[in-house]
Amino acid sequence: MPCQDLQIIDQLWTKYSQGHFGFSIQTQIYHSCDTDYAQFCSTVGWYLPYATSPRQQLSFKLSAPIGHLPSHFWASGTQLGRHMKALAAKVASCYN
Question: Which residues does 19 contact at the CB level (< 8 Å), separation at least 6?
Fold first, then answer.
């Protein structure tokens, strides 16, 4: 995804969630968790592996944990931590 598109999407998430959600917010949290994906998931409230329906566990309210959205449904496969690492690297390159 081109940086300009990623930045626009991120800015919209951040603006309309009053700073609660967005890729840049998630990247900050990911780094604050020392890039530990399990800790990151716990921090943002992603307990999806234990849900009977993944969407039941997502909250689309500002009362959700900071960084809860956008969800990681955009990523597929079994190594979601690798997707977060790649996203964090892309966000960093786009904002530098």
Answer: 25
